[in-house]
Amino acid sequence: MCLCGEKSMSKVTIIGAGLAGSLLAIYLAKRGLDVSVFEARGDMRKEDVAAGRSINLALSDRGIAALREVGMDEYMLREAIPMHGRMIHTLSGETKLLPYSGRKGEYINSISRGGLNIALINEAEKYPNVQFIFNERCIDLDRRSGEAAFESGRTIRADTLFATDGAGSKVRQSMEKHVANFDASSIFLDHGYKELHIPPGDATNNFLIEKNALHIWPRNKFMMIALPNFDGSFTCTLFLAKDAVGGEAAFERLTDKAAVIKFFEREFPDALRLMPTLTEDFFANPTGGLGTLKCRPWNVEGNALLLGDSAHAMVPFYGQGMNCAFEDVRVLSGLIDEQPSEPPALAGGHIDWESIFEKYTKLRKPNTDAIQDMAVENFYEMRDAVADPVFQRKRELETKLEQTFSDYFSKYSMVTFREDLAYSEAKRIGNAQDELLMNICRPIKNVAELDIENVISEIRKLK
């Protein structure tokens, strides 16, 4: 049967109890819908997080806006660490802070992935119409009947199904096999990543490097970053080519403890002194891949929708993967509110899911494409440009512009602090601004030389 059109669809199935799926369960439960969430893994509240999986994320305004709508923003921000800018570490050990914004109150937040996920699951379970079913891995979806099959042999027929099962989505893979004209592409960087660790200083959990910053060790062809954790530690991530080309550094060259130590002594000497378990972490934690996944269509005959990473996985270099997925949920909810039928927010109301899914895809696809592209661009900016004196002058100028003119936002600020602005617009305006400001900063030695009124006048012409 085809479950589409204006029909009472009060029962919803969500595949994937990660961040996006758990938040979606809350949004739908608040509308009175019956929600079942199936998760391939065990209940993370009872199990340890797998080693090498990021334990903290960058929560910013788009994600906060979604949490605010379910009353969880203040609670989660109390569990987060503000990061006011990028702390650049040179090879000689010098540091320089590049603020994220020139306006007060604009910063990103380091937050525990596991802590946030657990909080969302706990909040969702407060609703009697929500149930989580763990250790049930979805392996297939019948696009016509809406029947989902699980590895355990279980099958369920969903009125409406949302796939929030991540970049390796089995629902999406089923759509690739069975939906005519389904198009999917995955583009991977030559680089991989490995998570490492800086422990807290002592029993009082003091931070060994600046607490309120995202730390970057840019080294042109590769880099390392570090985000603070609540216990005083830092989660470090090394981004490095997988395969060796010529004499360049690569994971395949780091095959023993001596090679790892020598590499860090040469490239990250200030960090090495703070990483007593470096070699143990290096060989215990896996080397992950970095890819961008795009696909279409996201919806199937009105009864299934891909959402979050299952539809648009991205590399992590803008810190927007989670924030974008949370915005997906918020936008979807807004489209339900726009329906003219008698109250769709209530169970038993008529929700035209097919119409909503079509509008949602048209609205979100250009914007998720934009942030996916910007995330790749930002990899090269973080790895290469942040150490460039011209780029640093540009960031200094942007900070000054934001402090002086209320209508100026850098591209980073538009993406990160303007949940009211579409990603596609942030990309269009931001790229034009970046090109202009780099050209302005290239021939000068000091930003103080510039007539800032003339600069803002040229920027305003771009819009």
Would you mind describing this structure in some detail?
- This protein is α+β, with helices and mostly antiparallel strands.
- The chain folds into 3 domains: 241 residues, FAD/NAD(P)-binding domain; 103 residues; 75 residues, no CATH class.
- The protein is built from 15 helices and 21 strands.
- The strands form 5 sheets. Strands 7-6-15-16-17-14-18 form a 7-stranded mixed β-sheet. It has a 6-stranded mixed β-sheet with strand order 9-3-2-13-20-19, with helices on both faces.
- The longest helix has 31 residues.
- It is globular, with a radius of gyration of 23 Å.
Fill in the keyword field for this structure:
six-stranded mixed β-sheet, alpha+beta, FAD/NAD(P)-binding domain, 15 helices, 463 residues
Average pLDDT over all residues: 92
The shape is globular
Strand content: 15-25%
- SS summary, helix count: 15
In CATH, what is the class of the largest domain? Alpha Beta
Number of strands: 21
Any idea what the radius of gyration is?
23 Å
